[in-house]
UniProtKB/TrEMBL annotation:
One Pfam family linked to the record: LacI
Domain HTH lacI-type positions: 11-65
InterPro entries associated with the record: HTH_LacI, LacI/GalR-like_sensor, Lambda_DNA-bd_dom_sf, Peripla_BP_I
Single GO MF descriptor: DNA binding
Protein name: LacI family DNA-binding transcriptional regulator
Family matches, as Gene3D superfamilies: 3.40.50.2300, lambda repressor-like DNA-binding domains (1.10.260.40)
Source organism (scientific name): Devosia neptuniae
Length: 342
């Protein structure tokens, strides 16, 4: 075969068969796990493949068997620490079971997520994991009807078909409230996000409900999308008031870090002496000495391991519609005062 031809296209199985002096089917069997082929034929094929630089076209092979080994991952806000860690863990664990993660970067809105799901159907993905946005029920139904498994992360949607893998948000938000009350905080506030995702809303609503039960009315500040800048702006709004809080629950760590820096650098206050702050997620930065943020650690490794186990099954079978929520672990650091003496 000429160099020009090899530069123009991939080496085919037919070319390997000609060089090895065997049939096309012998090449296919050589590269199919468990297929029957003699040792002599295998050696000839592998030698020819090595000489030509041949690689099996797994995509074409998968499509011929109605399995592409592609798993679509629909995600937005990839640079944020939580999403980046989830995506890193997801793609690495998928590779261990021979799946290829196809990352589709969306804005998180309904239209963007819908387009992403259609792309996964076009590529005949074995499954799709939705980290961001709330898919339309009819589109989910279309995915399921086409044999595609759909897994939602931290959604509260009651849609027929997909699995919802979630953490226990409400229970831990109530625990955050009790943390701050045990620290002696009397004036509480919530820093939330305009994103309005089900998981963030569940944390916000559970915290405010716990305060309401105690007869306490608390402000909820949403200064922008989930991020450091929105957390800092929320702090500026809270501490420009006459009755500034002495305890704040931020529905994500990234909001908490922005809030904490504004409290310290814009208002000259100390954390936790003047104000205690609790976050949620336990991103890497939360453990840095300059923050030492008290937070709740999401069990990302366990969640991803469970998802990969589901996707490694040959047939989805009778998947439960909702997986029992995974429980975050409270991580006590220096951003909350220790419990005062009785």
């Amino acid at each position: 075969m000429s160099t020009d031809t090899r530069d123009r296209s991939f080496v085919s199985a037919e070319e390997v068969a000609r060089l090895a002096g065997v049939s096309r089917s012998a090449v296919s069997r050589t590269f199919t796990e468990g297929a029957s082929v003699s040792d002599a034929t295998r050696k000839k094929v592998l030698h020819a493949a090595d000489m030509l630089g041949y690689h099996v076209n797994h995509l074409a092979r998968g499509l011929s068997h109605e399995r592409s080994n592609i798993v679509g991952i629909v995600v937005s806000d990839i640079p944020t620490p939580y999403q980046a860690r989830m995506l890193d863990e997801m793609t690495r664990q998928l590779q261990t079971i021979g799946k290829v993660g196809m990352v589709i970067n969306t804005t998180g809105d309904a239209g963007s997520v819908a387009n992403a799901l259609r792309q996964t159907l076009n590529f005949r993905a074995d499954g799709v994991i939705v980290l961001s946005g709330t898919p339309d029920a009819s589109l989910i139904a279309s995915c399921v009807a086409n044999g595609q498994r759909v897994i939602l992360i931290n959604r509260s949607d009651h849609i027929e078909g997909p699995v919802n893998v979630a953490v226990e948000n409400a229970e831990n938000a109530r625990e955050a409230y009790l943390m701050l009350r045990r620290a002696g905080c009397q004036r509480l506030a919530v820093v939330s996000s305009t994103a309005g995702t089900p998981s963030l809303m569940a944390r916000e609503e559970a915290f405010t409900a716990a305060a309401t039960q105690d007869g306490m009315s608390i402000p909820v500040i949403k200064a922008g999308p989930t991020g450091y800048a929105a957390g800092a702006e929320a702090a500026r709004q809270l501490f420009s008031r006459s009755a500034a809080p002495d305890g704040i629950f931020c529905v994500t760590d990234l909001l908490a870090l922005g809030c904490m820096d504004a409290v310290r650098h814009s208002f000259g206050l100390s954390v936790p002496q003047d104000v205690s702050i609790v976050g949620f997620d336990d991103i890497e930065q939360a453990g840095w000495d300059s923050y030492a943020l008290t937070t709740f650690r999401q069990p990302i490794d366990e969640m991803v391991e469970h998802i990969v186990q589901l996707l490694s099954q040959t047939e989805p079978g009778e998947w439960a519609q909702t997986i029992a929520p995974f429980k975050p672990v409270p991580i006590w650091r220096r951003s909350v005062l220790p419990r005062p003496a009785a």
